């Protein structure tokens, strides 16, 4: 897995072969195929780790932050997102690519189910944050799952955009600032406006 991560990081998913990974791991390609039916399955197995970490961070927000006010909880969500990015930026980017690609069709049903379960859980936990905010009159009354989906679209979009810019200039990393601004604008948009005084 470590060897695969190194090769995927250097060559990317499309250019990497199972032979490259086997060579890096000092194994025969046949041995590698005993564990993974193809490179898509191996690549996806690496992505599960980042999804598991993401879920741990989100569960922490719902349990530990539940006593705090909503601005603090939204702040904790921002921090969790950035923390997940810092935990493994390469695999996070790869996971976002994976979830929007044909690669998912090449996975075993078990692996696909695992990815679906972890992805759905992260959306549900985030939706719960918005559901609570709506119930407490903090946020506008929109569907919590839709709001959660928008947050994850913002996150994946910012990560992919900033990473593509880093390919051109590795010294520039504005991910944190860009994510902060994007989520602040989103939060302002969903905050319930105080009723006008008559």
What can you see in these coordinates?
The protein has helices spanning 2-15, 18-25, 29-35, 39-64, 70-87, 89-99, 109-135, 144-168, 175-190. The protein has 198 residues and is mainly alpha-helical. Helix 1 runs antiparallel to helix 2, helix 4 packs antiparallel against helix 5 and helix 4 (39-64) packs parallel to helix 7. The longest helix has 27 residues, at 109-135. The protein is elongated and about 70 Å long. The model has no long low-confidence stretch (mean pLDDT 84).
What is the secondary structure topology, with strand pairs?
Blueprint: H1 2-15, H2 18-25, H3 29-35, H4 39-64, H5 70-87, H6 89-99, H7 109-135, H8 144-168, H9 175-190
Helix pairs in contact: 1-2, 1-4, 2-3, 4-5, 4-6, 4-7, 7-8, 8-9
Large-scale geometry? elongated
Low-confidence stretches: none
**What is the CATH H-level superfamily of the largest domain?**
Tetracycline Repressor, domain 2
Number of helices: 9
User: Average pLDDT, to the nearest integer?
Assistant: 84
The overall number of domains is: 2
Biggest sheet record: none
Strand content: under 5%
Give a brief outline of the structure.
With 198 residues, the chain is mostly helical. It contains 9 helices and no strands. The protein has helices at residues 2-15, 18-25, 29-35, 39-64, 70-87, 89-99, 109-135, 144-168, 175-190.
Q: Which labels suit this protein?
A:
Arc Repressor Mutant, subunit A, single chain, 2 domains, 77% helix, 198 residues, mainly alpha, 0% strand, 9 helices, Tetracycline Repressor, domain 2
């Amino acid at each position: 897995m470590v060897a695969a991560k190194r090769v995927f990081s250097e060559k990317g998913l499309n250019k990497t072969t199972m032979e490259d990974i086997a060579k890096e791991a000092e194994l025969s390609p046949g041995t590698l195929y005993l564990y993974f039916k193809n490179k898509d399955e191996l690549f996806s197995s690496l992505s599960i780790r980042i999804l598991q970490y993401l879920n741990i961070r989100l569960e922490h927000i719902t349990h530990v932050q539940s006593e705090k006010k909503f601005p603090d909880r939204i702040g904790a969500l921002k921090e969790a997102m950035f923390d997940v990015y810092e935990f493994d930026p390469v695999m996070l980017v790869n996971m976002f690519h994976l979830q929007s690609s044909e690669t998912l069709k090449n996975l075993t049903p078990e692996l696909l189910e695992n990815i679906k379960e972890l992805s759905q859980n992260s959306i549900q936990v985030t939706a719960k944050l918005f559901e609570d905010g709506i119930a407490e009159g903090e946020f506008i009354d929109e569907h919590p799952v839709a709001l959660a989906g928008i947050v994850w679209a913002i996150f994946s979009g910012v990560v992919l955009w900033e990473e593509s810019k880093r390919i051109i200039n590795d010294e520039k990393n504005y991910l944190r600032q860009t994510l902060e601004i994007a989520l602040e604008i989103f939060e302002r948009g969903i905050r319930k406006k105080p009723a006008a005084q008559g």
